[in-house]
Write a structure and sequence with these properties.
The protein is of the alpha/beta class. It has two domains: 12-30 and 282-375, Aspartate Aminotransferase, domain 1; 39-277, Type I PLP-dependent aspartate aminotransferase-like (Major domain) (Aspartate Aminotransferase, domain 2), CATH 3.40.640. Helices cover 40% and strands 15% of the residues. The strands form three sheets. A seven-stranded mixed sheet has the order 2-8-7-6-5-3-4, sandwiched between helices. Strands 9-10-13-12 form a four-stranded antiparallel sheet. It is globular and about 55 Å long. The N and C termini lie far apart (46 Å). Bound molecules: 4'-deoxy-4'-aminopyridoxal-5'-phosphate and glutamine. 4'-deoxy-4'-aminopyridoxal-5'-phosphate is lined by residues 31, 92-94, 118, 163, 167, 195, 197, 226, 228, 234, 237, 239. This is Aminotransferase. It holds the Pfam family Aminotran_1_2. Keywords: Aminotransferase, Pyridoxal phosphate, Transferase.
């Protein structure tokens, strides 16, 4: 049978979560919280369902939600979005990323991707006829080498994809990075696809550098967000995409034929919930505590933490523990020690293996405590 993605198997997130389940392991692999979401938003969903909001939402999203998002964007980034023409509600960031790529990438267009990269980027580019050009982040601090970016730009380059805060590395881009990016994008007339799903999961007083804070860059950018991360509800698959009117028009052409529209009562509830800034403003503090709890719990073990400034992922180097490759090590820890993680070599096109595993700390303290107890034996 013909395959458009012949070498692609099952996503590492599905593989490791299944392995965790099969082996009764603590699942710190796939990124999702194991604690309850706020009852207030559940009550809202229920109320909107009871009130009859159970049919198709408008294709581009419930207007009240787009208006609430416009308010948040103004307040957070000083970005004036027109709810009607700049914001599209998508089935999670994953669909938003795909629709965004389809909007700007044509056959043979090159797209710069930084590795390690979230696993949907490369297939989404190729399914849209594009050619991914992978550049490794500098190991071990996972920064972007902007000179290398300049060298990799060709007449076919169309798009640069960035992700800050970064999954899986937990690094964040600096103001200076965005200034460099803006310069390159304007000089070569490129687009930027900015994956900002962890915008509020940022620590140690760092400030999230959204492309929407930079007017020149914003004009050339598509920014992608996810309510799954911000409101601990990854299973709701609700997110949104912010772009210029021209790009938004193209994004919606694809969006309408992938899902048409997104879950109506959830959108209505989110519209209300977003009106209270306390519902999202302290998220950074909340997760910073979890990061520190996890780090404290593994202190004294032979696992070595790398810096985590954002996202809900902590990288641990196990160089002092084992000589295994990271895929084998993740499997070994899951099956023999009952803690599941994600090997990060799978996020590299060249499969670079630095013997590092990713652990999700979006978990109850008792879950983290149990995992730390096991990891501390090493
Ligand atoms: N981008 C990144 C970097 C992510 O980590 C995730 C979720 N794990 C997504 C996109 C997809 O988000 P969603 O679940 O809203 O589709
Ligand atoms: N974003 C989540 C992670 O990085 C997983 C999302 C998914 O399973 N597709 O773990």
């Amino acid at each position: 049978m013909h395959s458009r993605l012949p070498e692609v198997g099952t996503s590492i997130f599905a593989v490791m979560s299944k392995m965790a389940l099969d082996h009764h392991a603590i699942n710190l692999s796939q990124g999702f919280p194991d604690f309850a979401i706020d009852d207030a938003i559940i009550d809202q969903v229920y109320r909107f369902m009871k009130d009859g909001n159970n049919q198709y939402a408008p294709m581009s999203g419930v207007p009240a939600l787009r208006n609430s998002i416009a308010e948040v964007l103004k307040k957070t980034f000083g970005f004036a979005a027109d709810a009607e023409t700049n914001i599209t509600i998508t089935a999670g960031a994953t669909e938003g990323l795909f629709a965004a790529i389809s909007a700007v990438v044509g056959a043979g267009d090159e797209v710069i991707v930084f590795d390690p990269a979230y696993d949907s980027y490369n297939p989404a580019i190729r399914l849209n006829g594009g050619v991914p050009v992978h550049i490794n982040l500098r190991y071990p601090d996972y920064t972007i080498d902007w000179d290398e970016v300049k060298r990799k730009i060709s007449p076919r380059t169309k798009l640069i994809m960035i992700n800050t805060p970064h999954n899986p590395c937990g690094v964040v881009l600096s103001h200076n990075d965005l200034v460099m990016l803006e310069r390159i994008v304007l000089e070569h007339n490129l687009y930027v696809l900015s994956d900002e799903v962890y915008e509020r999961l940022i620590y140690d007083g760092e400030r999230h550098q959204s492309v929407l804070r930079f007017p020149g860059l914003a004009n050339h950018s598509i920014a992608v967000f996810s309510f799954g991360k911000t409101f601990h509800a990854t299973g709701w698959k609700a997110g949104y995409v912010v772009a210029s009117e021209k790009i938004t028009r193209e994004i919606r052409k694809t969006h309408q034929f992938i899902v048409f529209s997104v879950n109506t009562p959830v959108q209505c509830a989110l519209a209300e919930y977003l009106k209270t800034p306390q519902h999202y403003e302290s998220l950074g503090q909340f997760y910073q505590q979890k990061r520190d709890y996890f780090l404290n719990g593994i202190k004294g073990s032979s696992f070595e933490p790398l810096a985590c400034r954002g996202s809900y992922f902590q990288l641990l180097s196990y160089k002092n523990v084992s000589a295994k490759g990271d895929v084998a090590m993740a499997e070994y820890l899951t099956k023999e020690f009952k803690v599941a993680s994600i090997p990060i070599s799978v996020f590299y096109q060249d499969k670079s293996d630095h013997q590092i595993l990713r652990f999700c700390f979006a978990k109850k303290e008792e879950t983290l405590a149990r995992a730390c107890e096991i990891l501390s034996k090493f």
